[in-house]
Amino acid sequence: MSPLPAAARDERSLGRGLVFLAAFFWGSTATLARSVFRDLGVPPLQVVELRLAIAATLLLAWLAIRDRAALRVDPRDRGYFLVLGLFGVAAVQGSYYYSIARLGVGLAILLQYVAPALILLWEMTRGVRPTPASVLAVVLALGGIALLVNGMDHRAANATALDWLVGGSSAFIFAFYVLYSKRGLAHHPPETLLFYTFTVAAAFWACVTPPWRILAAGYPADVWWRFLILGVFSTLVPFRCFYAGLKRLPASEAGLLATSEPVVAILAAALFLGETLRPVQMLGAATVIAGALLATRGRPETAEASVERG
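Above: the chain sequence. Below: its structure as tokens.
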């Protein structure tokens, strides 16, 4: 077993740092999103639509000035962008926020982050042999998240079969999103994938809540500033970081590193929203971080094989 060249090791280290950075932005801006929902009464799916539209608009302006070539795609790839935009970006957002509304935040997070285990299973079907460290990392991540979000929300007791079906599907949707995105990153720059999939997803949610209905709500300027912050720091920046990291890492490792998002979210809620951080949650946070760090100890040849098959 020959070690990876120094350049390849540096690329993997950079990829890990970028995924951690994405998780930091997602987790830290979750407190802002929750305040918009809770304190201002803005429907969550309207926020999803706006942050996607804002991110797509800003990215279009940037690419039009700096890299117009990234906007040109082969017509044969339009189907790929449509599928990823609808069944990846739009579906991930929709299933997650539906689960929050019907099952509660804790269960929604726990169900969605079953995805790294599904990604690992998929890679096994593709001939990638998991290391004991990667399997243990999945177990630690799931166990840690369960401790972080312990205590079932009262809404789950009244949930219907459809609610549980959508909640459970969020893990499969997120796994699909990561794996299908990795396939596209082999042929397109991250900015190209982000612009077209954000646009498709925003257009879909605009059909659910037409833009004129959002404008008719008459949100004040300070709320629109929050929408802008969410569009940039909860969407554009972290998704760009995640894609840059995913391009350099196996999909299963990127998915596991992303499980640090709920750790950041809960710590940020304790710091900025005054929510109590219980000892069991601190243990859960430490367990998730241990799992994420363990995920970085996979064998080099496993990572290469996964990248080649991605």
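The chain has a mean pLDDT of 85.
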